[in-house]
Amino acid sequence: MVRILAFYRSIKSKIAFYPTLFALSGLLFALLMMYLEKRGMSDYLVEHAPLFVVNSGDTALTILSACITGLISMMVFSFSMVMVLLNQAASDYSPRLLPGLISDYRHQIILGIYISSILYCIFVLFSIQPTGDKYQIPGFSVLLGILATVISIYAFIYFIHNISETIQITNIMEKIFNNASTRLNILLERETSMNWNFPDSHGWTAYSSDKSGYFQDFSGRDLLAFSKKNNTFLEVLPIKGTFVLKGTPVFRSKEKLSEEAVKELLENFHLSRKELVTSNYVLAFKQITEVVVKAMSPGINDPGTALNAIDYLSELIRLRMLKSDESFVSDSGQDYVKMRAVSFEELLYQINAALRKYCCGDIVVVQKLGYMYLALLKQKVLRPSYHDVLEKEAKRLLTDAKVAMTNEADLETLNLLAKKLPLQF
């Protein structure tokens, strides 16, 4: 099951996914209309509703040719706009944002409307056959081709509107935040059913991966069924999003397993060559942090974007403070599978290390980060140690900022900020 879901996620993220589906639907609809035309549909409409039928063969050929030409031009322009969008996002923000932009279903659907309309018009054009001095005209099909072109024009107008909004960094970060917060809320709901009675895994037998890739996900239901079937407990060793080399241990079992059982279990682990926010919320922290770093680089120099990104980052950190560093798969009051996650301390250190490197010279951004830590220290946490981690990282930030700044007014601002946290540095 996990492989089917992984395959679906993989093809859905491709820019050609929806266009391919729409192209097939346009082709099938054209064949259906050709069949209905042979059954005398246009002749029936000529007698009862002549307004909906194109009678002139030359007119039909001219209209369909113009529609096909215009649709191809719009499609080429739209593809060019998508490429410009991806290039700008990679150069101005972060290359990690590209998978999320490519998988935007709205762009794919609009491109699919173009392609399906083009294929439909082409096949209808082929069905216009000369019979003596006249043409055998699929009149109603021609009218539908005109309507498909009109729909494509409106889709093109919506595409221009949507592409102008998608390129805005605020909307990009909003999408990243929504995906990550959705994933975190799902994990938080699962933690409410945990019993925290997993046995000590020291000394268990470890089993290695038979291939390399980013550890994306696994089927918790299948692992639970496997544990109960083999009367054992399992511990998943790699953290989601980490790169697993072939031969690296990926799980431990309380009971020794046969080669067939190990092979069966490894099939439930999804290793991929790319990372997705929908399956690994930690990637969202990386992406938003990279947006802040890129915005503070001398080539971009956009502190306003950095300040907005810090707001999204602070909300994600607040959600993460409600989650444990470990999670389990349980059934009937017993935890059978243990999973690891990036610890809160390690996650916050990785975020703060990048921000300290590139933001300590800007008092406005440092002040924003300081107030972020101040607000987070007042939030509810799962473990009291999370507050200690926040204070530690806040102190490191202000210490590095004090070294980087020489202006007396900036230093006084840092001192006031340290008193509010409160910190001694």
Automatic annotation (TrEMBL):
The keyword Aminoacyl-tRNA synthetase does not apply. Keywords: Membrane, Transmembrane, Transmembrane helix. The chain crosses the membrane at residues 15-36, 60-86, 107-128, 140-160. This is DUF2254 domain-containing protein.
